[in-house]
Amino acid sequence: MSGPAYILGSGIVTCLGSGREATLAALAANRCGLSALEVFRPLQEEVLPVGQVAVPAGAADLPRTHRLALEAAAQAMAAAPGPPDAVIVGTTTGGMLESETLLRQGETDCHSYRFHGLTTVAELLGRRFGCCGPVLTVSTACSSGTVAIALALEMLRQGLAGRILAGGVDSLCRLTYFGFHSLQLVDRHRCRPLDRDRQGMNVAEGAAMLLLAAEPEQDDAPAILGAALSCDAHHPAAPHPEGRGALAAMRAALADAALAPEEIGYINLHGTGTRENDLAEARAVRRLFSRLPPLSSIKGATGHGLAAAGAVEAVVAALAVEENLLPANTGLAEPDPALALQPLRRPERRPVERVLSNSFGFGGNNGSLVIGRAGRVGAVSGNRPWPLPWLSIHGWSCLSGAGMQAQCLDRLLRGERVAGQCSASRFADRLDPRLIRRLKRLPVMALALALAMHEDSALETAFSSVFLGTGWGALSETHDFLERLAETAERFPSPTDFVGSVHNGPAGQVAIMLGARGANITFSGGDGSFEQALLGASLWLGDEERGCVMAVDEAHGVLSSLFDPSVAASAGLADGGGGFVLGRQPGQGRARVRLLFHGRADDGLLPAGLVRSCGGPEVLGRTCGLILAGLPLACREQAEKQLHALLRSGGLRVPVVRYRELTGEFASASALAAVLAARLVHDGEVPAGLCSPGCSLSGRRVLVLGLGMTVTAMEFAAP
Amino acid sequence: MDTDTLIEELKVKLIDILNLSGVKPEDMDAEARLVGGDLGIDSIDVLEMVVMVEKDYGVIINSQEMGEKVFASLASLAAHIRENAPASKE
To answer: Does domain B3-84 have CATH number 3.40.190.10?
Structure first.
């Protein structure tokens, strides 16, 4: 589907200042906002330049990332006609800065880490601005902000929302500051993107949020005209040397906006200042544009805001269009002749209609946006209520403490507990040892699941898109990085663990293993991460394409019970995951799945929209043969009330299995339940062991419910 | 420590920090191309080796150009460490 997403409001907070006016003034003056690190005190003498924000005091119990997000969101929502229908936030740090300090202090109270999770940023915005719809968290490293905006555009086009608050945010923290330094990617002087003598990037913090809408408020409002995502499937941290994925993303974004290269008036480059990124991006740009438009990277002024960068630059692109200002390539002294680009040395005042903005990240993630004036093109598709369309399931895989595939699924079918931690030797044995040599638990679990579902699908070509959910990301790598950092007094951080710690690392590994060069999106939506990944696939999967939707979480001896309150409340550690190879082709595959509902329940009650989107109590009672209910231990009481409210609402007499009693407590448990549901509708019967006395489904469906603060419903049916 | 002993020591360390499972010290040729060769060692591994060399031998390897030359082979790495190591107390 095509059509623009109009920008009704925007907020921006970087080291250049807070708000559009301050940002515009700094860009017009070609001012550099980088300065020596002050946010935390490094243990060694060397202090690197960073982009840091004067975060206002107040809300002191909230982490820095959350405060940055709130400030940008408040600006974007200042003139909003009402609450957003959805919130989509890209972030990689969440409460990391504060958690680093707590971990060093040896804090063991789970409550102290309640804002650690990436999902808590979006949830805070959802609560603050009264959003009752989907509240999503994407974490695709340095393309996160762009991916959030791209998903919002698609959600508006498909009529799932009228207004969406979308953007990106990251605060400075030790993990990223020392992580990029350990990769020797940081310029010890202020960074100089595209310069002959550039020596790397400067890590920055910031936030930018956009209120996007399907309908404009003014005829000349700037809009997101097009977006595209791709994956290099080449290396976990380095770009493809020819910029293969970058070129694909830029080309597809132009096609999505129905524009030719010569219709672009300015390119906002990713331009981090690392030798490899700038060279690969320059090669891709030169291949796409036979005549180069004016271009620059603003990261010499703002630094690299990581997950915030794409959203910051989308706001800057909109400013360029509205204020006729092309920002300079701040910090540039001598353009690198090897790049063969002529970046803007000074800001230029001239009209620009359409801007191409790039964001690339670890995991080979690429995203490009086209921003410009759209004019009034009318409603794109009209509001289409939930549920989302059916997707066909071609293959599945699952992993739990009991093992992989049949070892796990057969036991679940008998209603036996599979909770626990599976030994890596049992799921990694089919993977190429060279491929997993540097990987710890989570990425190996993801690779094992991806390979198993591909083989299970019996499709000749592997899926091209990856939608991966993970509540907590790679805990082993994160823990080991922080531990070694502290043990060596911050002298010897591990580059391998840093690269492995990014939440989208596992999805990037899957792409490399199977050559998946389509969209590659990692969602970190807490207990609803699998459902968010399914929502992502429902929005983004091409008509002829196949995609992998999975969720996976690892149990970690130290961190799991600190971060996840349901794990803290449970008796033992459990982990695992599951997923599907999905396509849009109706009538194909072994089963079907669709997302019926995705909403928030801040009041703790069952959202009224849930039963409505199931078709009402009568339809639900007739079509539903079994409910697999997810009641996370930390909010079990509230979830039980919601479940009873649902069963009472239509006098439903549907058997219920509380699946976490079988899977154990971990964020991705719903992925295991989803695979079980697919198998049940495929077999057409519910075994007595799972739910006494057992029954034939006779065409009825299986509902997988996620309960608690976020309420979700997935429906499974025979093909 | 003489060069041969250092090379043997480095082999053991690399197998450990780069998790070269299935590789034995005797499989490693001191003159063979280290980065991008048969062992599958890439830029992230080089950085991990940079850390090890600084930590264990007190030799700082900073610029990337220098890094590439130093990590051409195990022999060149050992030579660089011997040339630049701070005076030993032995």
So the answer is: no
